[in-house]
Amino acid sequence: MIDVEMRRPVLDCEPPPNVPSSDEIELAEALLHRLEARYLGRQESAGVPASAPG
């Protein structure tokens, strides 16, 4: 049987937590607003949604 212990990488420290920083959250919110403006037809300056298509 193959010894799988030899194939595992050795980690000297704990990996960093997978939590976004406040800068990453702000960037994500800005990008979300840009996508909403582009694809949902919202007025970026007024923040009012346009009438729904259909």
Strands, count: 0
* Strand percent estimate: under 5%
Average pLDDT score? 75
Specify the number of helices: 1
Main beta sheet: none
Parts with pLDDT < 50 across at least 5 consecutive residues: none
Span between termini: 63 Å
Evaluate the radius of gyration.
Answer: 23 Å
Structural class: mainly alpha
Task: Indicate the percent of residues in helices.
Answer: 25-40%
Order of helices and strands: H
Principal-axis shape equals elongated
What features would you describe in this structure?
- Helix content is 33%, strand content 0%.
- The chain has 1 helix and no strands.
- The protein has one helix at residues 22-39.
- The longest helix is centred in the middle third of the chain and has 18 residues, at 22-39.
- With 54 residues, the chain is mainly alpha-helical.
Give a short summary of the structure.
The chain is mainly α and 54 residues long. It has 1 helix and no strands.
Task: For this entry, give a set of tags.
single chain, 54 residues, mainly alpha, 33% helix
SSE layout and pairings?
Blueprint: H1 22-39
